[in-house]
Amino acid sequence: MKEKIMTKLQDFSKGMFVPVLILPIAGIIIAIGNILTNAKLAEYLPFLKNDMVYGLGKMLSGSLVSILTNLGIIFCVGLAVGLAKKKKAEAGFTSLLVFLVFINAMNIFLTLTEKLAPADALRGSGQTTVLGVQILDMGVFLGIILGIVVAYIHNKFCEKEFDGAFQIYGGSRLVFIILIPVTVGLAVLFSYVWPPVQNVINSLGEFIQGSGNFGIFTYGALERLLIPTGLHHLVYTPFLYSSLGGVAEIGGQVFEGARNIYFAEMADPTIAKLSATVIWDARGLSKMFGLIGACLAMYHTALPKNKTKIKAILIPAAVTSILAGVTEPIEFSFMFAAPVLFVIHGILNGLGMVVLNVLGVTAIGPNGLIDFLLYNLPLGIEKTGWPMYVLVGLGQFVVYYVIFRFVITKFKLRTPGREEDGDTKLYSKSDYKEKVASKDSNGESGFAPLIVEGLGGADNIVKVDNCYTRLRLIVKDSSLVNEALLKNETQANGVIIKGENVQVVYGLKVNGVRKSVDEFLGIEAN
């Protein structure tokens, strides 16, 4: 039962990547729009005073804000596509139809039962308008619920076919036929169920926010400590996109969730300072600063004979963390070899966010340096307080370095570069080229056969998937997985085995890895 629950949670976490990874793009475009409409910046860059440039900036920032007010449908379609095992495009189209059916069915039921609030008195009523239709304000949870329901029915019936005259009603048409009464029933059910659920969610958000710095510390620590399970996305996503992360009225519209709020505030020139709720997305502090101190500590504590090797391993990992916020290459370098360091990492990550909150810093720092510069510099120091964010980060860099170095040397931890037997693995450029250049008869990269071999062979692999940085698989027998081969021969940063679930961390190149494995196994993209 435990393994089944873990599998479902990991599937859900993976499915959430479809909408979650798209939304930051909206933020970056809004940031670019802010640059083009920034009056102070125009004093130094005269071309920004051009009416066409200014108009383009307003279009970019203004049009993308509409995404934030329609997160329900975005998560519904995105999650349905992410969770669908086959015919993903059809699952996405079906989810769009289901979403439209739901909001109109709920509106009609609320009207018939005289529960519909006056259109001019929605504030505080628990109701809102979605795509012009007035319903209960379920926010992003509406999309998540419907996306899961659609994916479940789709996976169960999308390949069910009929003979004869009923043939036309098979496949995805059957999925939609089944979903119509299910969706209408859910609309009626949630008309009664959702108001108390919303009260619980609001109370939970108030409790966490009322916990002050302790709540922020717990949030920041868990967001890192759950990395090995792949479920850390389930910690921060509700705070970024639901009322758990705050509620604010900006420009006459109500926004829920830390990220939605600060995206809207970025696009509104009348906002003098970003809201304190931005702290829930200050997760990039340790990515840009703390873990770099950890890398330096691991380098300085490495054995003299291994320092050249470990430097070549740690520098690319550090650069990836700083620029893109991808931390697994660093974290997996000590997570299993010295788990106490990973616990310390989680604690320091939470404490760093607490310091930012105490100092009232409202800089935007979700990931790496690129996002940080694009978001904060155009907004200015008064609106974000970004220089203090950098100072706190530099302080965290020092703290990580001192603590990691002390603990590694005091307890003689076998972090990378401290292996007496010389197991520190480093590929030469010629080795890498040889592996990449090697092809089998079907033209697949030489890494794919090694990966499949490391996973116990093709017959042992049940399902292949991936998220942002990890190859996620289901295998028949996890005891056949060769961790050493995957790490040493395929350049994997780490391997996590939970029952039949296996995750192999490859970082940003995971999409190419997934494609080569699919091709080698003869799996068609869907």
UniProtKB/TrEMBL annotation:
One of its GO terms (cellular component) is plasma membrane. Its main location: membrane. SUPFAM superfamilies: Glucose permease domain IIB. One of its GO terms (molecular function) is protein-phosphocysteine-sugar phosphotransferase activity. Residues 3-420 form the PTS EIIC type-1 domain. It comes from the Bacteria. Keywords: Cell membrane, Kinase, Membrane, Phosphotransferase system, Sugar transport, Transferase, Transmembrane, Transmembrane helix, Transport. InterPro entries: Glu_permease_IIB, PTrfase_EIIB_Cys, PTS_EIIC, PTS_EIIC_1, PTS_Glucose_EIICBA, PTS_IIB_1. This is PTS glucose transporter subunit IIBC.
